[in-house]
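Hi support team,

I'm opening this ticket because the web form for multi-chain structure prediction keeps timing out on my end. I have pasted the exact lines I submitted so you can reproduce it. The total is 868 residues across two entries, so I didn't expect it to be a heavy job. Is there a limit I'm missing, or should I split the entries? Thanks in advance, R.K.
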Amino acid sequence: MTDVASRLAAKRGAIVRNQAFWGVVAIVLLLAINVISDPGYLSIGYNSETGHLSGNLIDILRASAPILMIAVGMCLVVATGGIDLSVGSIMVVAGAVSMELLSSMDGTTGDAVLTLAVALGIATALGAVNGVLVSVVGLQPFISTLVMMLAGRGIAKVITGGQNTTADNDSFAWLANGYIVGVPVVFLLAIVIVVLVALLVRRSALGLMLEAIGMDSRASRLAGVKRRNLQLTVYSASGLLAGIAGVFATASVMTVDVSRTGYQLELDAILAVVIGGTSLAGGKFSIGGAVIGGLLIATLDKTVVFLGIPASATPAFKAIVIVVLCLLQSERVRSLFRHRRALRAQSQKEAVAA
Amino acid sequence: MTGAPPIVEMTGISISFPGVKALDAVDFRLFPGEVHTLMGENGAGKSTLIKALTGVYKIDEGRILVAGEERHFGGTADAQAAGIATVYQEVNLCANLSIGENVMLGHEVRGPFGINWKATHRAAAEVLATLGLEQLDLRRPLDTLSLAIQQLVAISRAMVTRPKVLILDEPTSSLDANEVANLFTVIRRLRDQGVAILFVTHFLDQVYAISDRITVLRNGGFVGEYPTRELDRTTLISKMIGKDFATLRSLGSERQSHHYEPRGEPLLRTEDLGRKGSSEPTDLELHKGEVLGLAGLLGSGRTELARLLYGADKPDSGTVWLRGKKTDIHSPTAALAHRIAFSSENRRDEGVIRDLTVRENLVLAVQAKRGWFRPLSRKEQDALVRKYLTELNVRPADPERPIKLLSGGNQQKVLLGRWLATEPDLLILDEPTRGIDVGAKAEIQAAVAALAAKGVAVVFISSELEEVVRLSDRIIVMKDHRKLAELENGPHVTAETIVAVIADEGDDEEGDSE
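Hello R.K., no limit was hit. The queue was backed up. Here is the completed structure from your submission:
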């Protein structure tokens, strides 16, 4: 009996130590808070005419799509020991390019495909510029991508002439607003992309190589790992994923808001990655964890709105949730709790003995 | 020494970690005014015993008496308060502070207006004087000093609190012969002042040069305590590894009799290969199945030359011919593609990737060579890992264990496996046996001999001249970043021959300059 119990305890320990576990706990808690304030919060409606599912949960999934994209990109960059601060700005560039092109076109599906290709191509190119600055020029990732963060929003304003451009194209809008078997297309696309990236990284040796350069770039260089190519690949991938996020974000309203689209989303992406248990120091990374982190941020955003927390207090609320989460994940705090538990167990034992 | 009671007396010390008994009823005594060496293979429990004495680990059983009083160390501060100071293997000093600041860090003399720097420096000077280091300039920043002087500064820093016990954990692992001699002068001085010194090292010569008494541990158990003069080297080694070391001996004679006569076209030939500031233009030739030893003191340019051959540093002069063809080796990636592998002397920073598993560390170079988009299947990885873990006798043979949990010798074996897995024609080994125990050393030497017999060309670099002589077919002696001489190895060549070559040169130079 003790054998089974100890094995169970070990398994439980492993789950609790897994940082993403606390992300799941936080999501459940937030949903619980919402249910308390409105018992019908979790109900999912079904519109028999259109076949669409609707409800708060569906809204959260829809809203999480862009964050998932940039969080996954960020996760790969962070694994190499870098950081990409430009994802929010690359989002707005991709959005601006799409809206400008579409507004001058007829609204056919072909136009939408062409626009998508151009927007994502430009986003990838901007990511590649980050990659070149980091890997070839040897600038610090923080500085290179900070420059791109400032430049990106400027580029977007130049593209639209400072306007918030609006366009019409049903195919393009379908990417964000359409449904397949009742589920938002945008969420399905996001999940498919995440799974593809995860498969690519874990089935090939890319994941091992990224971790190797993130953990010890000198040792991996001597082992023949091509750091330059890998960094270029990773920053380009992060740019591409940010471009997709930008398309998702603008297609839902078919408008690009040059000063608000993707604004400060790089911070959300970094948070999502950290909540998922990937250390900003580089090395071991978890795409699954980043997905949970992204879902948590989307849930948090929706909860803030749902609870009617004033817009000015929103950042503070977000900060509290995240600080608590980081505390729970911290090895130090946890060992403190363990220590207290052990002390209590000991005093109980002593009491029994006496 | 006899008659005086021991300053430290540890009896029946046991420490367990989950799943392992790290120390099992170990006794240890330390007398004032003696140098006492702790010997044992990696994993024998030396560091655990030291950590028990310095309060890092709590002991499960046993007693620690310091100066006759029983002590319970709850942390390192308790041990320090009891007069036990430690200098660790890696120098823990602030590179950007001056010598004086480093020595007095945390013990600055305070006046009414904060730190009294004048008095602080005076106190630092006093400490340095007790160690016979008056000549050091207190205001010089630490990072302008050699590692050896930094080590002396670290010892000075430990002596600020006037401890009765000084623990030196492998202080000599990165020093050359001269620097070691300086360090020993300081150690003897402290010993004569009545400090009890606990010394840990892997170098047998040093044990016999400095220590009065030896305690041997094996597999966490206590083997015995011996006066140094009553224990000869062979006995000491056999006590450490628990069996006789005939393997080591037979290997040497076998290698020297086998002596390889190079013929035909060399595998690798360089002409004027060099790099400004690190390596003078050098010519060398290397044949298949040959072991070329690079001998010389630390800093003689051995490592720098090896790095040029591998493309780890870019050469700025000279030409390389590989298999008769002019070849440009500008990066490790290019070198690996040309079947050259290089194991760095810096195992910690340039060798193992600590957080990856044994398996991942072992397949890394092969995988990098293939490119990430052509992954090794799990089956191929398992085959490679099984092959090299068995061949090189890695313990524990658990591929999924993070490599940082293995002992130094076993990490080195995994690294050797990493390079062998790339099936090199030329293998460059820079200090592959530094800081590892006698058993692992013999196994690595045997592996090198076996490789050469299979036709691999090996460049072998080591600070231990005996080892170079034992393994090499030819020896290149280096000094001051250039090739001094090239010796055909044979029964007439010994470590003394090499020392003589280096020393002769030195005399000539002095003569020239005067």
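A quick check on our side: Chain A touches chain B at residues 203-206, 208-209, 211-212, 215-216, 218-226, 230, 283-284 (CB under 8 Å). Let us know if the file doesn't open in your viewer.
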